[in-house]
Amino acid sequence: MTECIDVHTHIVPEDFPAYAGKNASVPWPSMAAAHACHRHVMISGKVYRTVADGSWSVPRRIEQMGEMQVTRQAISPMPELLSYWLPLDDARVMIRYLNDEIARMISFAPDRFVGLGAVPMQDIDAAIRELEFCMKNLKFSGVEIASHVNGTSIGDARFEPFFAACEKMGAAVFVHALRPAGQDRIVGAFTEQAVCFPGDIGLACASMITGGIAARHPKLRMAFSHGGGVMSILIHRLVHAWHMFPKAKESLIESPEVTAKRFYYDELVFNPSAIDYVLRTFAVRRSSSAPTTRSRWATRRR
User: Fold this and answer.
1) Would residue 180 be called left, alpha or beta, if left means φ above 0 and alpha means ψ between -120 and 50 degrees?
2) Cα dihedral sign for 236, 239, 240, 245?
3) Distance (Å, whole) CA 213 – CA 150
C-alpha cells in the first residue's frame, strides 16, 4: 500500500502566552472560546479565524488522519502566526513558543508527525539561529516560510545566507502564501486565499529562480504550497524569456525549467486535472511502492 504523507497541514496552539513586550499596539494573537470543539484566533481584538480542536489536540488529529487515510503529517504553524511584522524581540518569543508547541505534539506520536518550524525572517541572523535550534535541538525536518517577508520576495539577495544555511543543514523549506499581492484588486465576496494565493506563491517560486538563489544552491530542498500556484503556467514564459533576452540568460547559471523541476509542489489545488498538469509540467514521477516524491521531501530527515 502506498504511504500517504500530508506535507501541508497547520497547527494552532490551544492558547497563546500573554503578551509581555513593551509595545502596546502589537497584534499579538490570543484564543477565545467558540462553539463546541472550536476556538477563535483573535488578533487586534477581532476574530481572524475559527479553528477546530484538531489544530492542537494530537488524539483528535490522529483520528482525523485515520478518516483521511493519511499515514504521516508534516505539521507547521498557521501562516498568519509567522510574525514577520512584529518587533524582533516579540517575534522571537512567539516563534519559539510555536516551535515548542510543534515539538510537544510530535512527542506524543513521533511516528505520525514531523516538524516544520517557524523562523523570524525579518532578521536573517536571528532566522538562522532559530533554524539551527529547530534542526539540532528539536530535530525538525525543516521550516515553513511565507511567500514574501513584509513585501520583499524570498528570492531577494538579502535572504541568500538563510537559504545557504538551510542547504548546509539539510533543512526542507515549505513556502506558503501569506498576505498576498493583489488583495486591493479583489472584486466581490471572495477571499484573498481563493483569488490571490496562486499568484503570490507563483511570484515567490519565480523569485527563487530569477534571482538565481535556487540555482546556486542545488541541494536546497524547497516545496511550494497550493501546487506552486501559477508557476506551472509561468514557467513556460520564464523559459521563453531566458532564451529570448541575453541579459536574462546571462543572469542565470541554468535554465529556469531545470531549477523549477528540483522544487516540490503540494497537491492542494482542488481539482485532479490541475494536479495532473502540475505533474506533467514538472515531471514529478510517482512510485507505487514508496511515498510520493513530494512526500519524501519532508520526511527524508528523521
Assistant:
1) beta
2) positive
3) 19
Residues 6+ apart with CB under 8 A from 235: 256, 257, 260, 281, 282
Angle formed by the axes of helices 58-68 and 88-108, nearest 10°: 70
Q: Which helix or strand (DSSP H or E) is residue 259 part of?
A: helix 256-260
Q: How far apart are CA 286 and CA 253, in angstroms?
A: 28
CB-neighbour burial class of residue 106 (10 A; exposed 0-12, middle 13-18, buried 19+): buried
∠ Cα 278 209 273 (to 5°):
10
The predicted structure's pLDDT at residue 285: 54
- Burial of 72: CB neighbours in 10 Å, binned 0-12, 13-18, 19+: buried
Residue partners of 149: CB distance under 8 A and separation at least 6: 84, 121, 122, 159
Measure the CA–CA gap between 256 and 298, rounded to whole angstroms. Answer: 23
Helix (H, G, I), strand (E, B) or coil at 88: helix
Give the tens place of pLDDT for each residue, 241-277.
999 999 999 999 999 999 999 999 999 999 999 999 9
pTM over 0.90: yes
Amino acid letter at 169? M
CA neighbours within 13 Å on the CB side: how many for 25?
Answer: 1
How many Cα atoms are found within 13 Å in the side-chain-facing hemisphere of 58? 15
Closest CA to 293 of 266, 258, 255: 266
pLDDT band at 288 (very low <50, low <70, confident <90, very high): very low
Residue reference for cell 484566533: 41
Contact between 118 and 99 (Cβ < 8 Å): yes
- Separation of alpha carbons 223 and 114, rounded Å: 15
